[in-house]
């Protein structure tokens, strides 16, 4: 936020800028204005993972750019287990009409080769392939009842400093 003040008799403009930043709860990583929790110790079905994220005031992750995907795959690579992880993308309500649980558009869909395939006519939930797979970091549709690692995403916590900085 920038405010301009006019000093009387001097006609000099000075900007007062408030310092702002985002931060995350413990156990979450900040990227942009969002916080991510990559759960690798406790595996859950897709719905149980979404319920867990909701209890944390978030959702299973929505991914909207190659940069966001690279951040998440890089973080997953640095962990001892780097298996498949649930994201919020699904076509539970309507086959091949993929939506995110957080309501954001499905505007970036990095599917692995041959995916989505709806194998056995029953794959409605999406995971991010881990680094132990031939096509890591890409989406794959899967049985929602499979247990996987998962990624939660929620908005970052905005905090505003009370100490202004004067800019000439």
UniProtKB/TrEMBL annotation:
Residues 31-153 form the C-type lectin domain. InterPro entries: C-type_lectin-like, C-type_lectin-like/link_sf, C-type_lectin/snaclec_domain, CTDL_fold. It comes from the Eukaryota. It holds the Pfam family Lectin_C. This is C-type lectin domain-containing protein. It comes from Oryzias sinensis.
């Amino acid at each position: 936020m920038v405010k301009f003040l006019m000093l009387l008799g001097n006609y000099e403009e000075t900007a007062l800028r408030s310092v702002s930043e985002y931060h995350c709860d413990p156990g979450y990583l900040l990227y942009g204005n969002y916080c991510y929790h990559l759960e690798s110790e406790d595996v859950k079905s897709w719905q149980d993972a979404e319920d867990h994220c909701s209890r944390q005031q978030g959702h299973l992750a929505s991914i909207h750019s190659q940069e966001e995907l690279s951040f998440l795959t890089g973080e997953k690579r640095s962990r001892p287990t780097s298996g498949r992880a649930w994201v919020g993308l699904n076509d539970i309500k309507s086959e091949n009409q993929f939506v995110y649980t957080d309501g954001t558009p499905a505007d970036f869909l990095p599917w692995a080769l041959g995916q989505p395939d709806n194998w056995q006519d029953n794959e409605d939930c999406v995971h991010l392939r881990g680094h132990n797979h031939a096509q890591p970091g890409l989406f794959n549709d899967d049985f929602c009842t499979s247990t996987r690692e998962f990624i939660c995403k929620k908005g970052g916590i905005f905090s505003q400093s009370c100490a202004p900085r004067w800019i000439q």
